[in-house]
Structure formats: structure tokens, C-alpha cells
Amino acid sequence: MPRGPVKVNAGRSFTATQWAFIEDRLREAKPTPAIQRLRVAMHLLYATGLRLSEVVTERVQDLQWVDYPSDAQDDESLEGWVLTVIGKGQKERDVPVPQGVVDELMIYLFDRGIGTPTTLGNGRAYLLGKTGRGPSNGARRQGPKDVLEGIAATTLYDQLKAFFSRCAKELLKDGDQKGAARLAKASTHWLRHTHASHAIAGGMPIEIAQQNLGHASLATTTVYVKTEEKRRMKAVKKFWEARAGR
């Protein structure tokens, strides 16, 4: 029997306020090599919607600078970075990466002793590597072989879970029990859901979100549209109740 679209729990995502809180905690965290990697990983996952299994397999050579000329539909040329991703079923897709995220990634690569994505000889290095020791933290660099190695998916998962747990404890101290409970449950996949929810709420066409996420079915991506519709209904209800209560 043919399988239907995979059900997605779009509720497992951060609100805009919760994401801003997480960003603040990232900025305030002590700038250790592990935190630097965590910051790059979280921004990469949030900006692209990649799966955990995808982001840990990405290499420097998978990040390419592209230039799109003007065409019949758009008379403006465009250039930027794209990341070639091998997703489920070994399907390949190109995902745009914002310049700000690439800038942060370049600093991280430099501190690991790799250089920029255009540096010759380091294309096989993983984007997310073992904890580096570069010039920004005053310690010695890793060996030439170590800088090319990546990290296990479980390592990144555990680091993200630990960070979300620390965020949850801070919210609990502030009396936000509901928010603390949500962050305590959060995992790497929440960043994928958050990317989709925030991107579509921000006006990204659903078919583009589908391509970036690597969903085989548009129906899977449509779940995030329903989440936005719910948010809109809630906003209208709040507006009307406030007006009626005058």
C-alpha cells in the first residue's frame, strides 16, 4: 500500500520570544570552542532547517558560492552561498545559507585551522568538527588531521540538549514554568520545526520551504501553514476581545 505523508508535529518548535531568549543565552555564554561550535550549529540548523543527520555530514566543499544571472522572471542578478545536502533516500538538494551564518562559520573554520571554504586542500573537512583550539582562545591548534574530522550526531544532540536544559532552568528561576517545560523537552529537531514555522510565518512560499527542508510531499510542509493560521486566528481573537471589552 502507498504510504501517506509523514506526520509532522509542528508544535515542537520555539516561539519567537523563546528563540530570542535562546539567542540571548548563546551571546552571554563563555566563548569556549564548544560554545563556538554550538553557536554555529544552532544558527546553521535554524537558518536552513537541516536534519541532525544531514548537518553532521556536511563538509567544507559542500558549501559553494553561486551567481545567478537575470532571467525572464527576474531582471536582477543574485549571488550567495548554497549548501549541497544529501538527504533521505540519498536525494540531493541545494539549500541557500544566509551570508551572516557563513560569516560566523568562516570564523569558526579559521579558528580550527582550516581557513575559508575557498582555501585549497581543506575541502574534505567537516563543517562541524571536534572541539578546536584556535587563536581566539589562546591555546594551541589541533593537529593537521584532527581539524578535518567531524563529530558524531549524538555529540551534537547531547550538547544541544544540555544547552536547552540550562535555558529551561533559567526560565524556571524566573517563574516561567510553562516555558521551562517546553525548553526541557527541546531537541535538535525543534530547530528544524522552528525554521519552517518562522520562515513560512515570515512570508516564505510553501513550495520553497518544501524544497529547502527536503520534504517529499508538499502535504508535510503544509503542517507549518496550519500552525501560522492558528497564530493568526489567535491574534484576531485577541484583537476583537480587546475591542469588545472597551
Structural class computed from helices and strand pairing: mainly alpha
CATH class of the domain at 16-187: Mainly Alpha
Unreliable stretches, pLDDT < 50, 5 or more residues?
Answer: 1-10, 132-142
Please tell me the overall pLDDT. Answer: 80
| Percentage of residues in helical conformation | 40-55%
Write structural notes for this entry:
Mean pLDDT is 80; it is low at 1-10 and 132-142. The protein contains nine helices and three strands, in the order H-H-H-E-E-E-H-H-H-H-H-H. The protein has helices at 16-28, 33-48, 52-55, 99-111, 153-173, 177-185, 188-201, 206-213, 218-244, and strands spanning 63-68, 78-86, 92-97. It has a domain at 16-187: hpI Integrase, Chain A, CATH 1.10.443. Helices cover 51% and strands 9% of the residues. Helix 2 (33-48) crosses helix 7, helix 7 crosses helix 9 and helix 8 (206-213) packs across helix 9. It is mostly helical and 246 residues long. Strands 1-2-3 form a three-stranded antiparallel sheet.
Short description:
The chain has 246 residues and is mainly alpha-helical. It has nine helices and three strands; from the N terminus they run αααβββαααααα.
